[in-house]
Write a structure and sequence with these properties.
597 residues, 20 strands, alpha/beta, 2 domains, TIM Barrel, homodimer, eight-stranded parallel beta barrel, binds zinc ion, elongated
């Protein structure tokens, strides 16, 4: 059963709360709600049936906490397969011709570095539930109430890699508009939607009125349908019981507004009952949605989305974590002494980098093992999206897999082997990728060859289902001291590739000035020139102050700094460029940890 | 009689020496050769007749030293009109159907600053000779044996403004390839050919073999026919008499090579006799010349030509001699305290300026008087071509008139009044001019309006007979903080104007960064961008080191510094940019002064 088939013509209604209903039907504090699938299948059936009768198109199995790790606290880990099987069967029986979504909630422990749960442990736990759910006959999977995009990613990959089920994922936000781990709604969408999800959204969190803002923000960037499942308002405790402050009527009319804000699937979370769903269904009956394709390029870290292209600032990709030609860095990497890398990461962030390139390519190291380690460490140190830079495709995949956010892969080329090896990873993990305009024929001679190579990359990527917004074309700046006319060919190619293919462009500055004195002057002049030809991103040393200064000025001149605001801000106060205060995730964690655990 | 009418089909032969012949016929040292026109008309006639008989197409009157100032040493000033009248009549009688050229040699005193002779004194003396010569029936004027391009300019203007005669001007070079005043052959051509000359060239100096190099250099830039009149080799003194070491036969065959080097008019100077001219005439009989139009933009000082456009370095025009917005400079100009200007001139030259803009526009000063003064002083201090920058058209003309070299006028616009007032000056003095792309409709809004205004300037200039090579279009950089998208329009206009009109382009950097902090960053970034769109010249503060550094790098990237040679030279040795040793004209003057006086 494909619930998405008809989505273009009519919105979908999910059911409401399971936990609230179980409590109403006798579930005590301290009892395992999912064990009811075995001990009280009739009660669970009744709840499902009442949502179906209220008009829900999809009901969610009573498996929110059903994973081996969480069940351990009830000593029920071994019952996991049975609990899931029973849950699906009960829902299936109640659903009739409606759909059954296998509910998958968070593991219940924080992942590294916030807690001790590893990616692989989470992945295994999620995979087990998904496999059991598919076996038992679930129609789709709803990964819900997620606070950590990496945990969500582990769940999504577990479902996708182990079942053929469609997948929806919803995140939960706090009153400050971020998840407990610090992720904002836009960053959540950017980080997750490319992983092969069929819909994405928000649940729990707030009542429907306060959820509108989150849905609106998501809607600006979502390329897949949005599911919104608000609570019945905010909870109050009264006489030891939890009450919610939104009536079924209010819920129904406010939820309709969520559709106007961009959701196309709605339902209820905590505090909602079949009455809520019945009124909601009546309220939105016959609403149609048209989907608008959003064209933009973005990458993300855990807490931040960086948009690339258009009138966005030229994206500064810090190049310093790269041992090529650096003896000291090479030795440190060989010796497993990564502090020097971590210092570089932090320093580049402070100097205004928007993204960090991570290259640890030293002969003789186990890059497949080290790259994921270095990447996971660096993403704990800085708040920047990362660019995974390696010639080892397996190392790239292993790192991309555990990035908390949407990374850039550096790079694919127009060579057959590269296209075949790299593009599947780009597609699977929904990353961006740098497309190097070199081919099996070698370096491009002029703007036309650069265009031809770029076109091959874009077309092949399209065949893999990769949108061209995720490709950033590197028009390759050759060494000017040996190929003097090549610089202008690169510039012209930037303009040509953008206008012909509609993709973003990037250059690396390390090559062009090779062999000349005062290399930063050549790099800086070329960067200003490239900016005026439409360059969108640059791989650069953010420690070259003049280069960064001229880049800032270039953005004023190319309307990438509207009303010169950033420029004036930067230079009036004589601040360090782009000096960004560190987001205090750990402070936040201390404050809020009790709420979720 | 127009000797140039048939020049396309056959070369012209001038006569040989007069002085040598007079000495052979009895002229004693200390006697005034020109007085022979009155005292020995028969001898002068005989000489002329012998040259006509030898085949000369043009004979030169015996008036080389006939000017009021030089004749004073013989107490013959008052005889000037009679001497000239007689000289022309004698030549006329001998010439038959051949042409008579009124010979005008140097005044015989050095002009300021090398001597005390003023421009106006020289001008008056030349004008008197020219007027008398025309009255007496000369067919054209030959200004010859000039060492000072300003003296030549005074002579040319005197002839052009007071007679209707065609004019040729020849300069005399020393063994080092420069005139006594330091002018090289290319600079002589650039400085003088635009003044309305019908031919230009070299006389005296050397024998025909050593003159080939000078003629070749002249030929590379000359847009008018070249006259070459070598001596009969180098002079030796033997037994108190002067002998020349080239035989008539050698002279004839070597002079033929001068035609191959680019001359189309030949003749003889010191030591040549009718025998030389007879053999020369026979040798070159039937030689045809085709004229090639030379396309380039160049301006000059006394000692230096600066080429603009193509792959030449982007021309750095120093902007600092300009009181706009500078209180201290304004006050100094008002007080007549110009040392601060002169220091700026020298400092900008040392910092790498190629041309200096001179603007003394302070309300209340007598700019028509002061501009020529300041210009003449500054051209004595620096070796750079000058750019005369004023809104007072009369001040521009008065300054342009006395510049020793070919200046740039800053500026004409596409406004009717400006075109009508400025272009006649550009034409008359053969200057270059900056064409500001503003019109009676105001500032241009986009690249198309800039092109339209540029087109109007170029077309109107063409109607005045001004070649487009002498127009440098300013695509106007507006203030980016108030018109943010204007910067890119200016850049696009640079490319468009060059490709559509084939003219050179310039921008001033003072405006674009107005109102922003760290203005040099905006200026520098824009300059690099403009360089990549094909900019040929920039009005800039050469004291902004970063701007100059990035400009140097930009020239590497745009192939305006072939093989990066200047860049490597500049930055490897850590020299000051473009630090040019001062040409020691005064040292040279001390050494050589006796030779000409
Ligand atoms: Zn909830
Ligand atoms: Zn819920
Ligand atoms: Zn001579």
């Amino acid at each position: 059963m494909d619930i998405f088939k008809n989505l273009k013509n009519s919105v979908i209604v999910f059911d409401g709360a399971m936990g609230t209903m179980l409590q109403m039907k006798g579930l005590k504090t301290g009892e395992c709600p999912e064990y009811y699938n075995i001990t009280h299948p009739d009660i669970v059936y009744e709840i499902h049936k009442s949502y179906i009768d209220a008009g829900a198109d999809v009901i969610e199995t009573n498996t929110f906490g059903a994973n081996r790790i969480k069940l351990k606290s009830y000593n029920l880990s071994d019952k996991l397969p049975e609990i899931v099987k029973s849950a699906v069967h009960i829902a299936r029986k109640a659903a009739g011709d409606k759909a059954v979504a296998l509910s998958i909630g968070p593991i219940g422990e924080l992942m590294e570095p916030f807690g001790k749960l590893t990616f692989d442990e989470a992945y295994s736990a999620f995979a087990e539930v998904a496999v059991e759910g598919e076996k038992a006959g679930a129609d789709l999977v709803l990964i819900e109430t997620m606070s950590d995009i990496l945990e969500a990613k582990a769940a999504i990959l577990a479902v996708k890699e182990n079942t053929n089920l469609k997948v929806i994922c919803t995140m939960t936000f706090q009153e400050d508009g971020r998840t407990l781990m610090g992720t904002d709604p836009v960053t959540a969408i950017i980080s997750l939607q490319g992983l092969g999800l069929d819909a994405i959204g928000v649940n729990c969190s707030t009542g429907p009125d306060m959820m509108a803002d989150i849905v609106k923000k998501m809607s600006e960037v979502a390329r897949i349908p949005i599911l919104a499942q608000p609570n019945a308002g905010m909870p109050h405790l009264k006489d030891g019981k939890t009450f919610y402050n939104v009536s079924p009527e209010q819920f129904a009319s406010q939820s309709k507004e969520l559709l106007e804000c961009g959701a196309s699937i709605v339902g209820g979370c905590c505090g909602t009952t079949p009455e809520f769903i019945k009124l909601l269904k009546a309220e939105i009956h016959g609403t149609e949605k048209e989907s608008i394709v959003k064209k933009y390029t973005a990458v993300s870290s855990n807490t931040k989305t960086v948009f690339i292209g258009g009138n966005n600032p030229i994206c500064v990709i810090g190049e310093r974590i790269n041992p090529t030609g650096k003896r000291k860095l090479s030795d440190a990497i060989k010796d497993g002494n990564f502090n020097i890398l971590f210092d570089e990461a932090s320093s580049q962030e402070n100097l205004g980098a928007n993204v960090l390139d991570i290259n640890i390519g030293v002969p003789g190291i186990d890059e497949e093992k080290l790259m994921p380690y270095v990447v996971s460490q660096i993403q704990n140190i800085v708040n920047l999206p990362l660019q995974i830079d390696s010639s080892n495709v397996k190392a790239i995949e292993k790192a991309v897999r555990i990035v908390r956010g949407k990374p850039i892969i550096n790079s694919v080329s127009a060579k057959e082997k590269s296209l075949k090896e790299v593009l599947p990873i780009v597609k699977k993990y929904g990353t961006s990728v740098i497309g190097l305009t070199i081919s099996d024929e070698g370096l491009p001679k002029n703007e036309e060859e650069r265009l031809k190579n770029a076109e091959k990359i874009v077309k092949t990527a399209f065949d893999y289902g990769i949108p061209k917004e995720d490709i950033i074309i590197d028009c390759i700046a050759l060494t000017v001291s040996s190929e003097q006319t090549a610089a202008i060919e690169t510039l012209k190619a930037i303009k040509l590739v953008k206008s012909e293919l509609g993709v973003n462009t990037i250059i690396g500055l390390s090559n062009i000035s090779y062999g000349l004195p005062e290399r930063y002057l050549i790099n800086t002049a070329f960067l200003a020139m490239a900016a005026s030809y439409g360059l969108d991103a640059v791989i650069v040393n953010p420690n070259d102050k003049i280069t960064m200064d001229i880049l800032n000025a270039s953005m004023v001149l190319t309307s990438r700094d509207l009303r010169c605001e950033r420029y004036i801000q930067t230079y009036k106060k004589d601040d360090k460029i782009g000096n960004i205060p560190n987001v205090t995730i750990e402070d936040k964690l201390k404050k809020d940890a009790s709420q979720i655990l």
